[in-house]
Amino acid sequence: MRILFLALIVIAIVSCTRQQRPLPKGIDRELPEFTIQLQDTSVRFNTTKIPKGQPVVLFFFGPDCPYCQSMTRELVKRMDEFKDTRFYLVTVADFKEIHFYDTLFKLDKYKNVTLGKDVNSFFFNYYKAPGFPYLAVYDKRKEFREIILGGVSIDSLKKVIRS
């Protein structure tokens, strides 16, 4: 009886640890390929160039969105806790607004932050993003973790990245 009980516990533990998170409809497990036009407007960065080894957060934002600004402000304050996470902040706004956002939060001083324009409206088409902030979190293997829609605390974001 004791062996049966122990076997059931082992099976329960193994089955819980092997479950994969369900993928939202239309989203692949792997980080999708798309292009971000960087602030200098001549350089286009393709997500296939993102190396494995660090978690990735795709942060779709609106420069005039108060929730995006609040989240970015808190993220910048605690950026030392996210040194090993790559952030890609993308928007459909014009470059004047992108530059203003970069200046406001001094994002250019963080090597793990890339800021640019979603020139092909990728987020609207692929993620069906209904608004912003909209975050797609991927693990260090560039595999899907979770979607976060709306304002979220930095502690909650940290838990998703670390889970």
UniProtKB/TrEMBL annotation:
Signal peptide as annotated in the record: none
Gene3D superfamilies: Glutaredoxin
Taxonomy, superkingdom: Bacteria
Coiled coil: none
PROSITE patterns documented for this protein: PROKAR_LIPOPROTEIN, THIOREDOXIN_2
One Pfam match: Thioredoxin_2
InterPro entries: Thioredoxin-like_fold (IPR012336), Thioredoxin-like_sf (IPR036249), Thioredoxin_domain (IPR013766)
Domain Thioredoxin: 25-163
Protein name per Swiss-Prot or TrEMBL: Thioredoxin family protein
